[in-house]
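User: Please predict the structure of the protein below. I'd like the answer in structure-token form so I can feed it into my own downstream comparison script.

Assistant: Understood. Taking the following sequence of 79 residues as input:
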Amino acid sequence: MEPVKQISASMWPGVNVMPMMSTGASDGKYLRREGIPVYGISGMFYDSEDIRAHGQDERIGVKEFYEGVAFMYHFIQAL
């Protein structure tokens, strides 16, 4: 969690990082079955009043997309 907190603080000062459980599925089940913990990290923000996940018009803002890409780039470098 420490790299996530550090990168988030540098990109979005004042935003809290907190774990949450998602009800969605992932390929992580194969790793968990072997005893390997799996965590999902996004780094992308969305409008909580306009959630369109997995619909025909699924979308994310352009700014949020590029910030998410930058976040993942820095996160992978940190690992």
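That's the full token string. The domain at 2-78 is CATH 1.10.150.900 (DNA polymerase; domain 1).
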